[in-house]
Amino acid sequence: MTNHAQDTADLALAMRAAETAGAGLMRHWTRRGDLTISTKRAGDFVSQADLEAETCLRNLLLGACPTDGWLGEETAEVVASRRRWIVDPLDGTTNFLRGIPHWAVSVALEVDGARRIGVIHDPVKAETFSARLGGGAFLNDQPLQLAAPPTLSAALFGTGIPFGGMDHIDDHAADIARLMPHCAGVRRMGAAALDLAYVAAGRLDGFWERRLQQWDIAAGLVILREAGATIAALHPADRPELSGTVLTAAPALFEEFALVLRGQSGNLA
Fold this sequence. Notes:
This protein is an alpha+beta fold. The protein has helices at 3-29, 48-64, 93-98, 169-179, 192-200, 214-227, 240-243, 251-261; strands at 37-41, 44-47, 69-72, 83-91, 104-111, 114-122, 127-132, 137-139, 142-143, 156-159, 185-188, 206-209, 230-232, 246-249.
């Protein structure tokens, strides 16, 4: 099978799996009060909805591709030589549990170290963001388009704010303090996968966050790249795929955005 044909088949499988898991999550969404909830650490929750969704994804994806590897938020990793699914069954668990309709299923496929497939499915809004390497990025059947780059002062950014005992709370507070005087606003919506998809769709002009897990960002990075966004880490020598720290915006806006967050706003023209 050619790479194009394989990617097309893999994308169809990822979308089918994400939508099936999303349908199961919607059944729990309507009766959230009945869920069993555990705390992994301060402010970080897992419920039977997360666990069932990951089991559904794992059964569908590895059932179809039994020699593939696996990296999921809730279940044991499976190591394989070439292909690996990277999955967050419910990104935005706290939103889900509190009845805030901003959460999603995230599915990515990595082949020989390259992320080739990304799907982020929002069941509440019936929105599926998807991309395959070299094939463009889409929301449902419509091509995604970055926002027409505004001036930095008119730009709206997304981020995630550390919680509980995370040791980089002060660093992130300093990021926000540097950026806010230069932009139109910052949104913290509580689901990094959807935030990345929203940049690709032009709903946000950029996004940054420190120390995310790979299941939070793998699909979003594929979608962003195919939409034409610039992606880096806060430290120029790092890679988001390794560090988990993400900085992204439309190309025309990226340099100014990065200078501010890297503490170099004195270099702005």
